[in-house]
């Protein structure tokens, strides 16, 4: 068999699976949600750490086979076009892997969902690194909207911040590669790289000419939980993402604060892009009564899967404020939304990101991944978060002047509320 025919056979199999399964977005299931790995979770806006949230696996549906005749016609059309390209294209043709990946991406892109994506083996390996609690890159939280990759926020004292990048900046090019309309996972894989290596980014910033900047990558260790007592007798704890140790570490921090008899608690979820779904539920359970519903997961067929707390809370009554901003996504929104619905906490800050869809992760045979949106989640009172976000009870915006001056008006307002009740 020639290489050309061998390539054709492989692609026929790939395309038969893609084109032949009419409902392939719903029928191809394993599990991941407002989720990260060959497991499952709640995926937030992606960052150079690409955290995420993990639910219970819904019952897989069988793909609906399409009529053989229709499929054969579509595939013959594909090969008719490809044979013309092979015979007439003036330039190098892609290799077998590139052609296969391109066919899959093309099919996935027709779904119009940025969170349903094919991730090649190299990028998938980088995504899997994120669950280790550290990664090598520039230290920025990014999101992809309508084919444009923009920075949501940068991690304090990390290379991106030190280089002067900030929320709202658009990354148009990585080294010599334009990334417009690239999948977010592939774009991140270009930005990431070994500590000590340099990446060149073309940045577009509102009100300024585009510019290029070189950043030396570093190892980014993620400090999951930090806590301290503030001068006014208020306990403060920040949670940076929801990995499988998040609840336990946050509980330890809160118990340490409660031992000092604080007047109230502040839970800082700003720039927390999400993580494991089960952790978001158990984190909410630190403050809500046992058996309290935290979120509702709804599937395309109308079925629902509720999630409730399973343990007794450790801080059920103490006054509580949750700090949120545009970088608070997915699992962060689950926790903040539930606490807000029940009146257990007051939200202070900016409107949250609005990531409320559930992705199931499939690890494919060659190490690549297919991430498929299969459901959306809602707050206990039925509020939709996806594309909407959460509105804080008290809106406070941090300006560029605040950042430059080292001020944190959101934290100041949270302290004020806990001290005055208004």
* Average pLDDT: 82
CATH architecture assignment of the largest domain: Alpha-Beta Complex
The N- to C-terminal Cα distance equals 77 Å
What's the CATH topology label of the largest domain? 2-enoyl-CoA Hydratase, Chain A, domain 1
Count the domains: 3
The percent range for helix content is 25-40%
Helix and strand content put the structural class at alpha+beta
Provide the CATH top-level class of the largest domain. Alpha Beta
DSSP strand content: 15-25%
Number of strands: 19
Gyration radius from CA atoms, angstroms:
23 Å
What's the CATH H-level superfamily name of the largest domain?
A: 2-enoyl-CoA Hydratase, Chain A, domain 1
Describe the sheet with the most strands.
6 strands, antiparallel
**Number of helices, counting only DSSP H or I runs of 4 residues or more:** 12
Poorly predicted parts: 1-69
**Spatial shape:** globular
Question: Could you characterize the architecture of this molecule?
Answer:
The protein is of the alpha+beta class. It has three domains: 87 residues, no CATH class; 88 residues, PDZ domain (Pdz3 Domain, Roll), CATH 2.30.42.10; 196 residues, 2-enoyl-CoA Hydratase, Chain A, domain 1. The protein has twelve helices and 19 strands. The strands form four sheets. Strands 3, 4, 5, 6, 7 and 8 form a six-stranded antiparallel beta sheet that branches. Strands 10-11-12-15-16-19 form a six-stranded mixed beta sheet, with helices on both faces. Strand 10 and strand 11 form a beta hairpin. Helix 1 packs parallel to helix 4 and helix 8 runs parallel beside helix 9. The protein starts with a helix and ends with a helix. The N terminus is likely disordered.
């Amino acid at each position: 068999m020639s290489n050309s025919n061998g390539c054709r056979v492989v692609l026929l199999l790939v395309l038969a699976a893609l084109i032949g399964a009419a409902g392939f977005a719903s029928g191809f299931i394993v599990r991941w949600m407002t989720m990260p790995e060959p497991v499952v979770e709640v995926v937030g806006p992606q960052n150079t750490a690409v955290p995420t949230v993990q639910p219970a696996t819904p019952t897989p549906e069988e793909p609906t086979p399409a009529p053989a005749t229709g499929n054969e016609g579509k595939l013959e059309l594909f090969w008719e076009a490809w044979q013309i390209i092979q015979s007439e294209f003036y330039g190098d043709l892609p290799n077998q892997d590139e052609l296969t990946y391109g066919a899959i991406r093309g099919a996935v892109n027709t779904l119009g969902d940025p969170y349903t994506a094919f991730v090649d083996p190299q990028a998938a390996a980088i995504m899997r690194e994120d669950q280790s609690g550290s990664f090598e890159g520039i230290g920025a939280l990014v999101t992809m909207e309508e084919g444009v990759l923009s920075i949501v926020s940068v991690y304090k004292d990390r290379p991106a911040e030190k280089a002067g990048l900030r929320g709202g900046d658009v990354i148009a090019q990585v080294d010599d590669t334009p990334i417009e309309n690239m999948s977010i996972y592939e774009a991140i894989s270009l930005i990431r790289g070994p500590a000590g290596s340099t990446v060149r980014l073309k940045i577009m910033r509102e009100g300024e000419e585009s510019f290029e900047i070189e950043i030396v990558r570093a190892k980014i260790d993620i400090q999951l939980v930090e806590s301290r007592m503030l001068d006014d007798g208020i306990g403060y704890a920040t949670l940076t993402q929801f990995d499988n140790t998040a609840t336990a570490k946050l509980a330890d921090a809160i118990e340490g604060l409660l031992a000092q008899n604080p007047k109230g608690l502040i839970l800082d979820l700003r720039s927390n892009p999400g993580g494991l779904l089960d952790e978001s539920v158990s984190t909410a359970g630190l403050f809500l009564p046992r058996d309290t519903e935290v979120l509702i997961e709804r599937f395309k067929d109308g079925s629902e899967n509720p999630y409730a707390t399973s343990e007794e809370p450790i801080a059920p009554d103490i006054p509580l404020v949750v700090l949120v901003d545009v970088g608070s996504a997915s699992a962060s929104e689950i926790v903040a939304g539930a606490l807000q619905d029940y009146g257990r906490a007051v939200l202070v800050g900016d409107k949250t990101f609005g990531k409320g869809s559930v992705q199931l992760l499939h690890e494919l045979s060659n190490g690549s991944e297919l991430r498929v949106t299969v459901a959306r989640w809602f707050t206990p009172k039925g509020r939709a978060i996806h594309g909407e976000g959460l509105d804080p009870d008290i809106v406070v915006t941090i300006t560029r002047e605040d950042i430059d001056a080292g001020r944190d008006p959101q934290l100041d307002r949270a302290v004020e509320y806990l001290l005055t009740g208004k």
